[in-house]
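Objective 1b: paired records.
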Amino acid sequence: MKRVHNARHGAEAHLIRGYLESHGIEAVVRGDLLAGGWGELPVDLCAVWITDDARLEETDRLLRDFLKGAPARIHGGGWTCPQCREAIEGQFTACWQCGAERPAGN
């Protein structure tokens, strides 16, 4: 098991864990429940670990891309909901205002 990311907080750690798992890399978060003691405990307390050391290189590449915002750019620019005309950011597949699905090709 290898530590691959020291998170600033539990939410960041779980977001990264979920991203890695969406790419088939099993990951765990350690230290997120100790956030109340961060003033007294080491800074690198909350971290993401992968269970398969052989996937370290792939994980490193995915994390670099993720932290640079590459996944958001893959989905392109924003779109406008055809139902309620709400402006939606490109990474979303449904409107947060009315729940309408993103139109195909948009």
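Objective 1b, second protein:
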Amino acid sequence: MRAALDTNILAYAEGVGDAPRCAAAIRLIAQLPAEIVLLPAQTLGELFRVLTAKAKREAGLAREAIMTWADSFEVADSSWTAFQAAMDLTIDHKLHIRDALIVAVAAENRCRILLSEDLQAGFTWRGVTVVNPFDAPSSPLLASLIGDSEINL
């Protein structure tokens, strides 16, 4: 089973947000087997914006963080097919185009889960289910991904 990470999970892991969520995101990512994690390139672009605009991180340091993420996990580019699907998601399901593109890239790359706090938990499209890792009780999909019925976030 493959899982894609949304920007908010990465931003929390970079220390942008409240301390409990930041710590939980770091624990979550540490529990995920690296070989199953996919980062849509869109998430890294958004993360760069969050780090430089919201967190006021110097652009060179933000770039270093982005490159570290890219070195750690597979990165999937946005294809024209994914962008077309994202437009359909925007029209049919009222998703913002940037969120829709992340869902479409996750589906195109055979992800089963998209870990996100921002998208509607439980939303499923083309086999990808949005899971909020901070929800309690935790999702059975997330538990099966980590291989543990008791998720330690």
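The CA atoms of residues 44 and 66 lie 6 Å apart. Strands lie at 3-5, 37-40, 74-76, 113-115, 124-125, 128-131.
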